């Protein structure tokens, strides 16, 4: 997810909007973590949800999901219960888990380039960082992303899921 400002233009032969899209893409691990938390949030009133149930509901390979849930457990986002009736549950209320905290734990910085990251800053190779047009745009991108993912919690994600289950299905958008 972290790329150097200059590397976007030098190594990727695409326009700036495509570069932003590439830089902001969640890894499969990040997507699966959010999907697992969605299942746990939807079932927050249940004692535990089995890893098999999460895996089957979300089409996530069980072994990969085990690694992700252990990672989320080490971050204090989920807790587990061992045994035949074991499984996972959220360690905190869904309202208290922001998507930003999950993404930062799994992916690292929310910034598309490291020179605009507030928590994972790394100097880029631009001749003058303070006058870099690319950095200026990427800073706006970071601020927009942070504003959204800091505000959205697992509880809101669950509410959106519920609304979408009861509404009409919409066609999938494709950008070419």
Secondary structure topology:
Blueprint (H helix, E strand, L loop, with lengths): L4 H7 L4 H8 L4 H15 L8 H8 L3 H13 L3 E4 L5 E4 L8 H9 L25 H19 L2 H13 L10
Antiparallel strand pairs: 1-2
Helix pairs in contact: 3-4, 3-5, 3-6, 3-8
The total tally of domains equals 2
Portion in helices? 40-55%
Individual helix count: 8
> Distance between the terminal alpha carbons, to the nearest Å?
22 Å
Number of strands: 2
Instruction: Please write the string of helix (H) and strand (E) elements.
Output: HHHHHEEHHH
Mind telling me the C-alpha Rg? Answer: 18 Å
Q: Percent of residues in beta strands? A: under 5%
Strand order of the largest sheet: 1-2
Structural class: mainly alpha
Q: Give the integer mean of the pLDDT values.
A: 82
Largest sheet data: 2 strands, antiparallel
Q: Keywords for this structure?
A:
176 residues, mainly alpha, Arc Repressor Mutant, subunit A, 2 domains, two-stranded antiparallel ribbon, 8 helices, 2 strands, 52% helix, globular
3D architecture notes:
This protein is mainly alpha-helical and 176 residues long. The protein has helices spanning 5-11, 16-23, 28-42, 51-58, 62-74, 99-107, 133-151, 154-166; strands at residues 78-81, 87-90. It has 2 domains: 5-25 and 98-162, no CATH class; 28-94, Winged helix-like DNA-binding domain superfamily/Winged helix DNA-binding domain (Arc Repressor Mutant, subunit A). The chain has a two-stranded antiparallel ribbon. Helix 3 (28-42) packs across helix 4, helix 3 (28-42) runs antiparallel to helix 6 (99-107) and helix 3 (28-42) crosses helix 8 (154-166). Residues 1-23 have low confidence and may be disordered.
